Amino acid sequence: MWKKLMQPIHRQRRIQRLIRLGVSDGVEAECAPEDSGVCATDSESERELVRSLLSTLHIDSLKMLCEAVESGGDSLGACVVVPKREYVLRSKCATAVVLFCRYFRWPDVDCELRLRRLLVCQCVQDDCQTCINPYHWSRVYTQVSDSPPPPVAGAKRSAPSARHQPDGSELAEPVSVTTGGTGQYGSTSSIDGASCRAWCRLFYFERRRRVGQLGGWAARGPVQHVFYSLPHGDGLALEAVVDQNPRPEPDVRQTRALIGAGLTLSLEPGGVWLYNRSRRPLFVSSPTLDPPRGSPAEAVHKLLPGFSVLVFAWAGDERRRRPPDARDGPRDPHSVTVSFAKGWGPKYTRRSPTECPCWLELCFSPLADRAR
Q1: Which of 40, 84, 124, 159 could tie 353 with a disulfide, CB 3.0–4.6 Å?
Q2: Strand partners of residue 335
Q3: Which tens digits make up the pLDDT trace of 335-348?
Q4: What pLDDT does residue 234 have?
Q5: How confident is the model at residue 43 (pLDDT cuts 50, 70, 90)?
Q6: From CA 335, how far away is CA 364, in angstroms rounded?
Q7: Has domain 162-370 been given CATH number 2.60.200.10?
Q8: pLDDT band at 93, cuts 50/70/90?
Q9: Domain residues of the chain, as ranges?
Q10: If pLDDT is split at 50, 70 and 90, which confidence band does 293 have?
Q11: Is 106 in contact with 29 (CB distance < 8 Å)?
Q12: Cα–Cα distance measured from residue 168 to residue 161, given in angstroms and rounded to the nearest whole number
């Protein structure tokens, strides 16, 4: 009885807390494109629209939304579902998704077409309802290479392919160091325990040193999280293996602290999407993202926090294969390199990913192997 009497008070407190958590120029907003041309200042009308929508939510939904927003996405939270409709905002129509993403994450977002729902969202999207948890959505990356002109003729791609090193050749199925959503390190090699063929192997490096088990970690389920340490994270926890590097350089220690919530890989019909879940940029080199027409340059792309990119697509495998005389040497068309917080290439002091403090090599199974 007492709980029922106190529920309206608790709801109002949750609503007030969420209103205070709205951003005007937060961390993720600072990473927004400078030429967006959209004012990032929250208007009073926007605040009132958010308050009005929050007042329609059940206290449990308010609690889940608070958890996601207060953690800055470290906790993705559950779905918060509302009826699908449009609202008038600054003389324009905006959906509830755009409204909440603007208010809690990106003040310059003006269209739902620029957003992408993450695979972790369990809401059944239809014409009647939608999920407004802003951490179940990401911004879509527009391909812009961070590496200009081609390297000097004869230069080799310096990122080693873990699968082709003597100690990383075809091995028995490894046991991943993953968490099971409890913060304790488990022994399953996939996030959902599915007994399907691995579609990707993940290898973690600190500079040139491979850290972790010899054969890497196998991704089997549709979603694979990689992070440093999360209290209730479900996925690959890098903190569990860094002790294998007993004498890390100072910048390696510093970069470890920046990995945070890391990244999420999701296997979808069009290929594999990578979502930057951390608060720092990721630097990505992928055959899918390379310049067209077999440009010899290794393109490095800067993926800002909160953005997603189609990092790998099996379609066009043959088109992505480099000719034998390509100026950057042989390259595995199924390998993707991701560096945490630190970039490499002509614009940086680090010329190759092997000079980056903390980075991953993602080795995707060939399409023929996946079909077996």
Answers
A1: 159
A2: 363
A3: 999 999 999 988 89
A4: 86
A5: low
A6: 6
A7: yes
A8: confident
A9: 2-140, 162-370
A10: low
A11: yes
A12: 9
Query: What is the distance between the alpha carbons of residues 209 and 199, in angstroms, rounded to a whole number?
Result: 24
What value, to the nearest 5°, has the Cα angle with vertex 208 and ends 158 and 319?
35
Q: Which residues pair with 267 in a beta bridge?
A: 272
Sheet strands side by side (includes 263-268) = 115-117, 137-140, 307-312, 271-276, 263-268, 223-227, 236-237, 178-179, 185-186
The CATH number for 2-140, chosen from 3.30.360.10, 3.40.718.10, 3.40.50.720, 3.90.520.10, is 3.90.520.10
Instruction: Answer whether 345's CB lies under 8 Å from 300's CB.
Output: yes
Q: How far is CA 45 from CA 42, 98, 217, in A?
A: 8, 14, 48
Q: Which two tokens stand for residue 60?
A: 């449990």
63 Cβ contact list (under 8 Å, min separation 6): 14
Asked whether 164 and 157 are in contact (CB, 8 A), the reply is no
Instruction: Give residue-wise pLDDT tens across range 119-159.
Output: 999 887 777 899 999 999 999 998 765 554 333 333 333 34
Q: With pLDDT > 70 as the criterion, what percentage of the chain qualifies?
A: 70
Task: Calculate the average pLDDT of the chain.
Answer: 77
Query: What letter would DSSP give residue 231?
Result: T
Residue 162 CA to residue 302 CA, distance in Å, equals 23
Q: Is 181 left (phi over 0), alpha (psi -120 to 50) or beta?
A: left
- Is residue 327 helix, strand or coil? coil
Residues facing residue 179 across a β-bridge? 185
- What is the CB-side half-sphere exposure of residue 94 using CA atoms within 13 A? 25
Integer Cα distance of 369 and 125 in angstroms: 32
Does the structure show a pLDDT above 90 at 161?
no
Cα(265)–Cα(261) distance, rounded to whole angstroms? Answer: 13
Asked whether 23 and 104 are in contact (CB, 8 A), the reply is yes
pLDDT tens column, 202-228: 999 999 999 998 889 999 899 999 999
- The type of residue at 258 is L
Can you tell me the distance from the alpha carbon of 116 to that of 101, in angstroms, rounded to the nearest whole number? 11
Q: Which are the contacts of 298, defined by CB distance < 8 A and separation ≥ 6?
A: 147, 151, 157, 285, 290, 328, 345
